[in-house]
Write a sequence for this structure.
């Protein structure tokens, strides 16, 4: 791993909760396993981060800064062949670009400004085209603050050979705003799941005693299966809780068409559950 120290470099940064450190540890380990495990299997490996942020973040209420997901992915021992970073905030994207150019000047990094649901074709245009003798495998990290990613966007990306690691904000957003989202005029969950009849499905699940966060996550996994992805059970979706009140915030869920990716994910879960040193050996 390329060691990077996050410090105030005069560029903008984002504020995050302390629990973000746990998330970044898990994501960094999966990045490492994926990039190294696939380097001799695929001629070209692409890393995509649809909600990239500025590269450095600061823990809310402290002066402690951390390295964000884009720079963690750039620092893996076997770097990806191309990086595509999307970010809707132009100020944050500019900060990321400057940090990438300073810290990883040789990286093939592309930057896409705007909401990924609106810029998805530009994102796709930056994915190298495969050929019969030259395969391209992509890994897409989807880390929104809420359930803003549309399933139509994911469906478009799934037309490539692509694995996904999602932050499913089924606790921190969807569960807290259920009454608002249940309004027939609100299409956010329909867009998120790609299911126009989700309200009817929810009434059935609620009658069976299912809690709303689990309903959303399970339905999402089912939708990914319609795109050819292997099942991702609820208990393999890593739960991350807040530091302050120990409330569940979201689930980290992996989706791949290949079993090897799930073996990598099992290793991530093993280390996180046993609190071992993630990069030992």
């Amino acid at each position: 791993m390329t060691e990077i120290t996050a410090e105030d470099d005069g560029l903008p940064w984002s504020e995050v909760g302390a629990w973000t450190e746990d998330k970044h540890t898990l994501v960094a380990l999966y990045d490492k396993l994926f990039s190294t495990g696939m380097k001799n299997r695929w001629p070209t490996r692409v890393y995509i981060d649809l909600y990239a942020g500025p590269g450095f973040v600061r823990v809310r209420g402290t002066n402690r800064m951390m390295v964000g997901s884009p720079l963690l992915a750039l620092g893996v021992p076997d770097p990806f062949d191309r990086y595509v970073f999307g970010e809707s905030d132009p100020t944050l994207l500019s900060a990321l670009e400057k940090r990438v150019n300073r810290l990883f000047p040789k990286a093939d990094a592309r930057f896409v400004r705007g909401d990924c649901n609106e810029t998805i074709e530009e994102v796709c245009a930056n994915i190298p085209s495969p050929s019969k003798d030259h395969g391209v495998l992509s890994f897409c990290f989807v880390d929104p603050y809420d359930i803003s990613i549309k399933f139509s966007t994911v469906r478009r990306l799934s037309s490539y050979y692509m694995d996904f690691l999602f932050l499913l904000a089924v606790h921190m957003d969807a569960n807290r705003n259920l009454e608002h989202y249940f309004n027939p005029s609100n299409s956010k969950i329909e867009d998120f799941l790609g299911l126009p009849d989700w309200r009817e499905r929810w009434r059935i699940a609620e009658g069976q005693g299912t809690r709303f966060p689990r309903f959303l996550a399970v339905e999402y996994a089912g939708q990914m299966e319609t795109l050819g992805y292997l099942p991702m059970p609820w208990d393999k979706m890593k739960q991350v809780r807040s530091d302050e009140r120990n409330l569940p915030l979201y689930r980290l869920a992996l989706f791949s068409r290949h079993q090897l990716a799930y073996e990598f994910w099992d290793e991530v879960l093993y280390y996180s559950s046993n609190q071992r040193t993630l990069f030992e050996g």
About this structure: The chain has one domain: 14-180+221-274.
